[in-house]
Amino acid sequence: MLIGYARVSTEDQNLGLQLDALTRAGCERIFKDEGISGANADRRALNDALAVLKPGDVLITWKLDRLGRSLAHLIAITTKLEANGIGFRSLSEAIDTTTASGRLLFHVMGAIAEFERSLISERTRAGMAAAKARGQHLGRTPKLSDIKVEWASQTIELGRLTPQEVADVLHVSQPTLRRAIARLNT
What is the dihedral of CA 14, 34, 39, 89, to 10 degrees? Predict the structure, then answer.
């Protein structure tokens, strides 16, 4: 039996292209995960698909990255499938682990995909480090300006208001206020 698995990372994405390809490939059942990252190992539809597979069946995906994000995860899944007499096929990469050449191609493509993700991650980290070195603020804008934090700190130190009262006046939580004061004092 041919079992299809389709996944999109966000609710805004559409499964249509994958579903059409899996149907054309002859999948008798198709399991779908929507709004779930490939990095998430616990995916309900994937778990359901893996549970129904029997020896002689083939799990089919539109692309390798629909099944998993890391080479280790992809290899773990396909190794488990192979140990149970179940094949794997990726339509876009033309990989079919029911053949020796398909298994080799799968490992090569998986390694290249992981290498590409590593490069992207390295470039992102390098870009963030360069931005920090230029003095750019990364991340969220602080809820409290430096002037408000200075006022809050002085007001609390002088005992005019309690930390909770200052937090209420500034419309923030006490932990947010504490972190802002700590940031100012560093």
Answer: -70
The answer to whether residue 9 is catalytic is: yes
Q: Is the pTM of this model over 0.85?
A: no
Residue 29 burial (CB count, 10 A): 15
Domain membership of residue 176 as a residue range: 146-184
Tokens of 1: 């039996």
Decide if 30 contacts 5 (C-beta within 8 A): yes
Residues 86 and 172 in one domain: no
The candidate with the shortest Cα–Cα distance to 84, out of 110, 109, 56, is: 56
Same domain for 168 and 111?
A: no
Which domain CATH number covers 30?
3.40.50.1390
Please give the pLDDT value at position 53.
95
For helices 163-170 and 174-184, angle between their N-to-C axes, nearest 10 degrees: 100
- 18-21-27 Cα angle (round to 5): 105
> Confidence class of residue 41 from pLDDT cuts 50, 70 and 90?
low
Catalytic residue among 9, 70, 92, 153: 9
Cβ neighbours of 153 (radius 10 Å) = 17
And the tokens for 106?
């799968």
Is the pLDDT assigned to residue 12 strictly greater than 90? no
Output the six-digit token pair for 74: 């992809």
